[in-house]
Each structure stands twice: as C-alpha cells, then as structure tokens.
Amino acid sequence: MIVVSHDLITMGRISVDIYPNDIGVDLEDVASFGKYLGGSATNVAVAAARHGRKSAVITRTGDDSFGRYLHRELGKFNVDADFVQSVAGLQTPVTFCAINPPEDFPLYFYGRLPTAPDWQIAAHELDTDAIRTARVFWSTVTGLCQEPSGEAHVAAHLARPRAGLEAGQFTILDLDYRPMFWDSEEAARAQIATILPHVTVAIGNDTECTVAVGAGTPDEQADRLLAAGVEIAVVKLGPDGVMAKTATERVVSAPVPVETLNGLGAGDSFGGAFVHGLLSGWPLAQVLDYANAAGAIVASRLSCADAMPTPDEVTALLSERGRPVPDPAPHVNKEGALG
C-alpha cells in the first residue's frame, strides 16, 4: 500500500516580499513597507494549507536573516519545511512591489540574477518517494529557467505516476512565465515541451499559454495543451473569468467581482484552492468557482501569503455572490491529514 505523506508538494520560488504600506504611490515616495513570505510555489503551498491540506514546499533560501525569517513563516502557515535548505554564499531573494490599483503592480526582483538559492535545487537532493506519493505535485515554469533547477524539475516529474487522474493524483504545471529570467520565449517553450508530457493539469493566462503552445484563442491553446498530454487545461481569461477543458468537458467560471487592492497573490490563491477542490472530488465547474472566489479575496487584500483565505471565507463570498457552494471535504481533518 502506498502511504501518502502529503496532499500537496510544491517546488520552486521563495522570497521575502516587501510591499508598500502607502497605496497608489511610486516606490521612491513610499515611507514604509511590510515584510511577507512570498514566491509563487511557496504561496500555493500556503494557500492549500489554509484549506486544511497537508502541504510542503521544495525550495532553497540563503543562509541569512531573511532565510531564517522564511523558515519561521512556513511554520506559522503550517507548511512542511523539511525540503527547504539554505545555500551558502547566496542571499535570500527579495521582491519589491509598487501597488497602484486596480491593475498596476510592477515587481522588482532583487537577489535573483545571475542566480538564486531556489535555482540551486539539484536532482540528487530530491526525496523522490515523497514526490511520487504526494496527491498533488505543483511546479512552475520559472523553475526550468536555470540549472541545476531545470534538471531537478524534470527528475521530479519523471518520478510522478502517469496514471494520475485515475488514481486521484495530479501533477500540475503553473505556466508562470517571467520574461526577465529567460533568454527568449523560444527557450522557455523548448523547456516547457520537455515537461508537458508528464503533466496532468496545466494552468496559465493568455501570455503564458502563448509561450507554452503558441498564440491562438483560449480554446485553441487549451486544445494544444491537451494534445501535448495534459488532461485538464486551465486558461485564465482575464476579465472574462477562467476556462477549464478536458477531452470531454468545457467549463467557464465568471469572475467574482471585488474591489482590487493588490492583484499579485490572486493566482497563487486560485492555485491552492484549485488543488483543494480537485482533492475534494468536486465537479470541475465547482472547482473553478471556488478557486475564482479564493483568488478574488486575495486580490482585495494587501499581501499574498498572509492574505490567503480560509474555506469559510471562500464559501461566504460565493454565497454573497449567489454562486453554488460546494460540499466540504469530509475526509480532511483540522490538521490537514487524510482521515
């Protein structure tokens, strides 16, 4: 019998997010900032933990004060940090953001070039047993942009069972494309092509899907992802919501309107809630509605990890907006372990 130790293991970026307390002000005029746990893959693990899921992250920090802060924050959010190590000689990355709602949230990455600790994950360091047995493994395209991280990500995907959906396991690729980390879109597309045959779910917006499989309508991009081996293609439609497509089903979830304060963590909140919905066995349409609402809540708040909603908050927003509320997952206990 396979012993499942984690509902979710994510792999990839971690950083200290430095967000201004002054909203609508250029960075040069900001008087004070707040410090938060950040990094897309890490935020997804936090988001899933908020929904009661037993989460872990595979990442690296610097051997410094910011690294120690991130380890402490992971514990605060009930994210397993057993796969988090420090890398001597490298600084923990810091990400600054200017917040100009409703749509302008530029990011400034410090301590990432020429490399960063989480791009130093090596294949031989991976606990492939834990990766293989996790109910969900989540990685991002950014982890493919440098070695040895790229090779480690391929090794992690090769460790995953291919009969994922039938066995209730999901291997998810966040098509998170950051152009400043790549030489070209073509280089990113080539790396993504090595991973897609091992992925059961791919998630991205129009730009990210274009980098992965070429320009086209959302349906054309979803069809190309399915043809590449993906079983669920999720294409974010911006103001039109989000679409998910399988070989037999196509569903669209309309956006959940909120007043946007900071849109940066919404996608990671969507991801953690999406994982929770998949593992709860909900119909795909309900998974999308729930994830959309979770993303909207974080968009209405300042930070990312600290802003991740609880199930009660998500279902309350769905009820407010007249959306169906999915049944809770009775097999998840308060500690997030399988019951």
Primary descriptors:
alpha/beta; UDP-N-acetylmuramoyl-L-alanine:D-glutamate ligase; globular
Averaged pLDDT: 92
Level-2 CATH architecture: 3-Layer(aba) Sandwich
Question: CATH H level: which superfamily?
Answer: Ribokinase
Task: Give the terminus-to-terminus CA distance.
Answer: 16 Å
Q: Give the total of domains.
A: 1
What is the beta-strand fraction? 15-25%
Number of helices: 10
Give the H and E element order: EEEHEHEEEEHEHEHEHHEEEHHH
What is the rounded Rg? 18 Å
Total E-strand runs = 14
Give the CATH topology. UDP-N-acetylmuramoyl-L-alanine:D-glutamate ligase
Global structural class: alpha/beta
Shape: globular
How would you describe what is shown here?
It is a single chain. This protein is of the alpha/beta class. The chain has a single domain (8-13, 43-91, 119-320), classed as UDP-N-acetylmuramoyl-L-alanine:D-glutamate ligase. Helix content is 32%, strand content 19%. The protein is built from 10 helices and 14 strands. The chain has helices spanning 40-50, 65-76, 128-133, 149-159, 185-195, 206-213, 218-227, 266-280, 284-299, 311-320; strands at 8-11, 15-20, 33-38, 55-62, 79-80, 84-87, 94-97, 107-110, 136-140, 170-174, 201-204, 232-236, 242-245, 250-253. Strands 1, 4, 5, 6, 9, 10, 11, 12, 13 and 14 form a 10-stranded mixed β-sheet that branches. α2 (65-76) links the parallel β4 and β5 (79-80). α1 packs across α8 and α6 packs across α7 (218-227). The chain is globular and about 50 Å long. The protein starts with 7 loop residues before the first strand and ends in a 19-residue tail after the last helix.
